[in-house]
């Protein structure tokens, strides 16, 4: 990893109580996800959405079959969740079950689990409550937003005509898109895939390589790949089915 000041030891991350060490803890966490260049943007995001943005940036850079409609659904459900009661969530009934939406929801929750572990290993630079799924993710609510986004509903509809959410939505979207652009990953709508989703070259000096249907990172430094059954490479192939 490339960490400002060098990679700190676990003894420093876990036991040192000096105020400046908290900065190094965050630097180390971001380096784990190759997000050091987006530190300033992520710090400007309010809690509990820092963790969500961190994870979305990582996923959208790694998985080239994720599109703008997916990003809209992820962000919209997180914002709308804040105003939902338990009974409202229980009574949600999606029109139908979309297999891809189920897989995306599962991917996000597994990503949150990984974030919990990384945050712990780095000495808790972020509050653990920010990573709890019930604060930023609900499966049925995400499914509803995914189906709406897939059908081309306007962002205002996804956000249930709430103007305060609209400002937050565009702020969070801008953070994710800007960070992805730094890694030469342009998030486009599904309608653009025919002309743009045909293989790309990554930035000079980056760890990307070209593939037949897009691009992905090389396996170096990516703990979610090449781990036998259930590895990211296997799942990447499954994404193409949808």
Structure summary:
The chain has about 240 residues and is mainly α. Helices cover about 55% and strands about 5% of the residues.
SSE layout and pairings?
Blueprint: H1 10-15, H2 19-32, H3 39-43, H4 49-62, H5 68-81, H6 86-90, H7 99-121, H8 133-136, H9 139-150, H10 155-158, H11 163-182, H12 193-196, E1 208-211, E2 214-217, H13 232-239
Antiparallel strand pairs: 1-2
Region (Disordered): 192-242
Organism: Colobus angolensis palliatus (Peters' Angolan colobus)
Protein name: Constitutive coactivator of peroxisome proliferator-activated receptor gamma
Tell me what the structure shows.
This protein is mainly α and 242 residues long. The chain has a domain at 37-183. It has 13 helices and two strands; from the N terminus they run H-H-H-H-H-H-H-H-H-H-H-H-E-E-H. The protein has helices at residues 10-15, 19-32, 39-43, 49-62, 68-81, 86-90, 99-121, 133-136, 139-150, 155-158, 163-182, 193-196, 232-239; strands spanning 208-211, 214-217. The chain has a two-stranded antiparallel ribbon with strand order 1-2. Helix 5 (68-81) crosses helix 9 (139-150). The longest helix is centred in the middle third of the chain and has 23 residues, at 99-121. The radius of gyration is 18 Å and the shape is globular. The two termini are 33 Å apart. One of its GO terms (biological process) is fat cell differentiation. Residues 204-222 have a biased composition (Polar residues). One of its GO terms (cellular component) is nucleus. InterPro entries: Coact_PPARg. This is Constitutive coactivator of peroxisome proliferator-activated receptor gamma.
């Amino acid at each position: 990893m490339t960490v400002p000041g060098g990679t700190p030891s676990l003894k420093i991350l876990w036991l040192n109580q000096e105020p400046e060490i908290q900065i190094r803890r965050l630097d180390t966490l971001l380096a784990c996800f190759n997000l050091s260049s987006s530190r300033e943007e992520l710090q400007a995001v309010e809690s509990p959405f820092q963790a969500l943005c961190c994870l979305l940036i990582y996923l959208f850079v790694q998985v080239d079959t994720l599109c703008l409609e997916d990003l809209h659904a992820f962000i919209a459900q997180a914002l709308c969740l804040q105003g939902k009661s338990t009974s409202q969530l229980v009574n949600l009934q999606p029109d139908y079950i979309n297999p891809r939406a189920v897989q995306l929801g599962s991917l996000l929750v597994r990503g949150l689990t990984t974030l919990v572990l990384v945050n712990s290993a780095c000495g808790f630079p972020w509050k653990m409550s920010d990573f709890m799924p019930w604060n930023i993710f609900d499966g049925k609510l995400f499914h509803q937003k995914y189906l709406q986004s897939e059908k081309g509903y306007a962002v205002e509809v996804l956000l249930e005509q709430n103007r305060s959410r609209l400002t937050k939505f565009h702020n969070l979207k801008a953070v994710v898109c800007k960070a992805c652009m730094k890694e030469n990953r342009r998030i486009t709508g599904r309608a653009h895939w025919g002309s743009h989703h045909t293989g790309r070259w990554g930035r000079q000096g980056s760890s990307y390589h070209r593939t037949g249907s897009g691009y992905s990172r090389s396996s170096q430094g990516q703990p979610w790949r090449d781990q036998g059954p259930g590895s990211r490479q296997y799942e990447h192939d499954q994404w193409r089915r949808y």
